């Protein structure tokens, strides 16, 4: 298995996964914005031409909202999948959820993880190592191929 992942640029893949997870809140806000702006269609009984610009704008909003929801779900489902693999990956999944989904500070993440997993203390430096590992696993598990960066041959 190492030979397959040996073709990947680990540092860039981790960076891509971090950026991808950081976009979660943006997609969440986008989904909320569109759900607020979507209105029920007018039902006055009169036929509407397909070229009605209001009709197309409404469809565009629905597509954008669906895309935003799908982007959020992709991140959440990948973290759920990580958590179902084994105990170590469950720990890494919790770390990603606390940091990127719940937006906890590093200190709060360390406290929550230590509490949940009966650790006396989780130093921030150790947390950073775990975060890199978690981002790597996330990028491997996530179906979005663009997260995995290939090594550049020279």
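^ Assign residues to that structure.
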């Amino acid at each position: 298995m190492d030979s397959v992942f040996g073709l990947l640029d680990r540092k860039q893949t981790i960076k891509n996964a971090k950026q991808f997870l950081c976009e979660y809140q943006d997609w969440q806000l986008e989904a909320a914005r569109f759900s607020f702006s979507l209105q029920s269609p007018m039902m006055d009984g009169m036929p509407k031409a397909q070229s009605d610009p209001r009709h197309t704008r409404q469809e565009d909003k629905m597509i954008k909202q669906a895309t935003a929801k799908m982007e959020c779900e992709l991140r959440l489902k990948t973290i759920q999948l990580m958590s179902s693999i084994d105990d170590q990956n469950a720990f890494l999944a919790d770390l990603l959820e606390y940091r990127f989904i719940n937006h906890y500070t590093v200190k709060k993440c360390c406290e929550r993880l230590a509490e949940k997993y009966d650790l006396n203390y989780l130093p921030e430096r150790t947390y950073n190592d775990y975060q890199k590992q978690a981002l790597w696993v996330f990028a491997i598990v996530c179906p979005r191929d663009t997260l995995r960066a290939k090594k550049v041959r020279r």
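The CA atoms of residues 112 and 118 lie 10 Å apart.
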